[in-house]
């Protein structure tokens, strides 16, 4: 039988979680919650029993809890709603809720969400059933540090699908697709795997030891996923003028860490950034054709001119221009 749940307990624990995340000291928690040290210790114990990792830093006299910092986008729940759902499921301890409890934990784990948004955060709007299944298996593998085996189909049609055994670290989505960043036991290096090319996924029993890994270092100065290591210390200076409604749109998002946008007295916006690899940016920039003027570098102008020329040739538009 599910346990009886007193209404005031979840509200009190949620308040404690909020204060912990705000960085209040142990003494300040006791004062703000108007409780005794013993009651505070009891509530911390309750949180630990519900699966939250709560650690006390004696040198700081502060508690640290692994509660997600952002809205729980996968379930469309606010942090407070998620806390109450998670608490009620765990306290009930009903077998009928065990599967749901696992899904809630995976969907909202700080280790797997927020999924890193690479480039403009439009994301992938619709997930097929197979892609959602692959995504969930990858999340579970990341959360539990379990090795993952799968059959991978390369983008090169001449290559036969091969079995990969990897240590999964991060999920990434670009405006086009989902990717898994993992340590490949075959290559003995970090590699990127497109989820749509993965099949027959198997979550292994083996647990791996995490290597030192910095996602920002792995991505370099990429617009989405790729960068040129030979130009990383000498990137292209990109400058593009945006006109009309595009000038307003470009100011509403932070597309790249090096991005700067300035208004020009003549009404357009000047966009600048530093990139070692231009192809991803060129593909993205083409959505604004008719509303942009490329100032630099000339290589970027050439890339887009080639794409426009190929399009015109493929559609036999040269005679109509």
Describe what is shown at a glance.
The protein is an alpha+beta fold and 321 residues long. Helices cover 36% and strands 23% of the residues. α4 (79-92) runs antiparallel to α5 (95-108).
Order of helices and strands: HHHEEHHEHEEEEEHEHEEHEH
Average pLDDT taken over every residue: 84
Q: Which structural class do the helices and strands define?
A: alpha+beta
Describe the global form.
Answer: globular
What percent of residues adopt helix (DSSP H or I)?
25-40%
Alpha carbon gyration radius: 25 Å
Account of the 3D structure:
With about 325 residues, the chain is α+β, with helices and mostly antiparallel strands. The protein is built from ten helices and twelve strands. The chain has helices at about 10-20, 25-35, 35-50, 80-90, 95-110, 130-145, 215-220, 245-250, 280-285, 300-315; strands at about 55, 60-65, 115, 145-150, 160-175, 180-185, 190-195, 200-205, 235-240, 260-265, 270-275, 290-295. The strands form three sheets. Strands 3, 4, 5, 6, 7 and 8 form a six-stranded mixed sheet that branches. Strands 10-11-9-12 form a four-stranded antiparallel sheet. It has a two-stranded antiparallel ribbon with strand order 1-2. Strand 5 and strand 6 (about 180-185) form a beta hairpin. The longest helix is centred in the C-terminal third of the chain and has 17 residues, at about 300-315. It is globular and about 80 Å long.
């Amino acid at each position: 039988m599910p346990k009886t749940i007193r209404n005031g307990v979840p509200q009190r624990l949620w308040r404690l979680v909020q204060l912990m995340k705000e960085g209040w000291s142990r003494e300040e928690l006791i004062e703000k919650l108007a409780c005794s040290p013993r009651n505070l210790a009891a509530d911390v114990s309750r949180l630990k029993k519900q699966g939250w990792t709560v650690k006390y830093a004696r040198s700081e006299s502060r508690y640290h809890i692994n509660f997600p910092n952002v809205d729980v986008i996968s379930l469309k729940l606010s942090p407070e709603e998620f806390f109450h759902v998670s608490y009620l499921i765990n306290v009930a301890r009903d077998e009928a809720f065990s599967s749901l409890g696992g899904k809630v934990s995976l969907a909202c784990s700080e280790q797997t969400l927020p999924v890193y948004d690479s480039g403009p955060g439009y994301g992938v709007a619709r997930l097929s059933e197979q892609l959602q299944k692959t995504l969930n298996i990858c999340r579970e593998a990341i959360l539990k540090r379990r090795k993952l085996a799968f059959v991978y189909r390369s983008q090169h049609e001449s290559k036969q699908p091969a079995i990969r055994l990897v240590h999964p670290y991060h999920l990434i989505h670009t405006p086009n697709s989902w990717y898994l960043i993992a340590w490949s036991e075959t290559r003995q290096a970090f590699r990127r795997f497109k989820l749509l090319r993965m099949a027959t996924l198997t979550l292994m029993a083996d647990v791996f030891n995490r290597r030192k890994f910095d996602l920002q270092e792995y991505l370099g100065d990429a617009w989405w996923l790729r960068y040129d290591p030979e130009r990383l210390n000498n990137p292209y200076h990109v400058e593009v003028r945006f006109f009309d409604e595009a000038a307003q749109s470009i100011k509403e998002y932070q597309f790249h860490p090096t991005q700067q946008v300035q208004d020009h007295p003549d009404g357009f916006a000047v966009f600048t950034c530093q990139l070692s690899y231009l192809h991803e940016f060129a593909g993205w920039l083409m959505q604004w054709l008719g509303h942009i003027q490329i100032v630099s570098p000339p290589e970027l102008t050439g890339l887009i001119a080639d794409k426009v020329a190929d399009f015109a040739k493929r559609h036999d538009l040269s005679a109509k221009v």
